[in-house]
UniProtKB/TrEMBL annotation:
It comes from Achromobacter anxifer. One of its GO terms (molecular function) is pyridoxal phosphate binding. This is 2-aminoadipate transaminase. The keyword Isomerase does not apply. Its EC number is 2.6.1.39. Residues 44-351 form the Aminotransferase class I/classII large domain. The keyword Transferase applies. Keywords: Aminotransferase, Transferase. PANTHER family: HTH-TYPE TRANSCRIPTIONAL REGULATORY PROTEIN GABR, TRANSCRIPTIONAL REGULATORY PROTEIN. InterPro entries: Aminotransferase_I/II_large, HTH_trans_reg/aminotransferase, PyrdxlP-dep_Trfase, PyrdxlP-dep_Trfase_major, PyrdxlP-dep_Trfase_small.
């Protein structure tokens, strides 16, 4: 896991795969819009940038986030329910630090975003995976595991799941909340890729009214990863404790980045920008699916949104990933996305490879070499 993270962040392009770090290419986004916001903030605030800022986050940005969430049915008040963070990873880290003690059971989806596995393990949590299908987690097994293990929380990627691209059905969403209430555990809803959904995705935080759901989201994927601006929404009691923990760990989150995001949102271009990005991602995903199928991979349930394709190679992909690394290509094998690190035949691909002819030729060669060596 650490090897993959180190490889993803190498400055050299010698080892890599387009979109390997879970980011879209700069030319798919709008760097000039972000740069313009940076310049505007620099001209307008000056002396205010040398202060710490508010520990809860830049107030005007929290007001904007609250308005967006309220439009989606989430009753988020900018003072009582919102805290800004240094991205979604920071938000999840704060939640884990506050809620998880050594020996606690935490339920996670399988497959799921692998970084959270490492963070929870560092706190001594016992991770148990709940299989994720196209409509959501296996709720019958979720009920069984909750009754048996008394989990502290369940972390779920509700809309545009990483790595499968699927979104919770209404039935699954209601079932998760009912099970959480029956067995008294909290639900952490990760909405990192939710803006790539075409609309109408059901938020657990909206159904639950922020009673036992903690919602996390951010702007790195759609605007600029370097800004590291995220947020969490929770009930007032939990939010106060998370805010105190944020101060103890680092006082505040950098206000400069939060002011830049606020400027982008204020200028009214963000929604149009999201729509442009979504359309480009959707087009690339269809081409990526066709390309992978031509190489002999199977996609059992095609995603309807998002920048990833979860494809079945038919044989162990950890060995394939090691072979690919020897040839200067970074692949994400399915074992990384399982909390048990079980052997897997799955691979996660970024749809951005659709625009890179050289990648397809390299994949074909590596697949052929791997097949001949087994």
């Amino acid at each position: 896991m650490a090897w993959l993270l180190r490889s993803m962040f190498r400055e050299s392009n010698a080892l890599g795969m387009p979109g390997g770090a879970g980011l879209l290419p700069p030319d798919w986004l709008d760097p000039e819009m972000v740069a313009g916001a940076v310049r505007a903030v620099g001209r307008s605030v000056r002396g205010q940038l040398v202060s710490y800022g508010h520990p809860q986050g830049f107030a005007p940005l929290r007001q904007q986030i609250a308005a967006f969430l309220q439009n989606d049915g989430v009753p988020a008040h900018p003072e009582r329910n919102l805290l800004t963070t240094n991205g979604v990873t920071h938000a999840l880290d704060l939640i884990a630090r506050h809620l998880v003690k050594s020996g606690d059971t935490v339920l996670v989806e399988d497959p799921a975003w692998f970084v959270i596995f490492g963070r929870l393990a560092a706190f001594g949590a016992r991770l148990i995976g709940v299989p994720r299908g196209p409509d959501g987690p296996d709720t019958a097994l979720l009920e069984q595991l909750a009754a048996e293990h008394k989990p502290k929380l369940f972390i779920v990627n509700s809309a545009v799941h990483n790595p499968t691209g699927h979104t919770l059905s209404a039935g699954a969403a209601y079932d998760i909340l009912r099970i959480a209430e029956r067995h008294d555990f909290l639900v952490v809803e990760d909405d990192t890729y939710g803006e790539l959904h075409p609309g109408g995705a059901m938020k657990l935080a909206a159904l639950d009214r922020l009673k036992r759901v903690i919602l996390v989201g951010g702007y790195s994927k759609m605007l600029a990863a370097s800004l590291r601006v995220g947020y969490l929404a929770a009930n007032p009691e939990i939010l106060q404790k998370l805010g105190d923990l944020k101060m103890l760990a680092g006082l505040t989150s950098p206000e400069l980045g939060e002011r830049v995001i606020h400027r982008v949102l204020m200028e009214g271009q963000y929604r149009r920008h999201i729509e442009r990005v979504r359309l480009r991602v959707d087009d690339a995903r269809q081409r990526c699916l066709k390309g992978l199928q031509k190489l002999g991979l199977k996609v059992h349930h095609e995603p309807h949104a998002g920048m990833f394709v979860w494809a079945d190679y038919g044989r162990d992909t950890e060995a394939l990933a090691r072979l690919a690394a020897d040839h200067g290509m970074l692949l994400a094998p399915g074992t990384l996305f399982s909390p048990s690190q079980a052997p897997s035949t799955m691979l996660r691909f970024s749809v951005t490879i659709a625009d890179h002819r050289g990648v397809w030729a390299d994949l074909e060669k590596i697949f052929a070499q791997n097949a001949s060596s087994n």
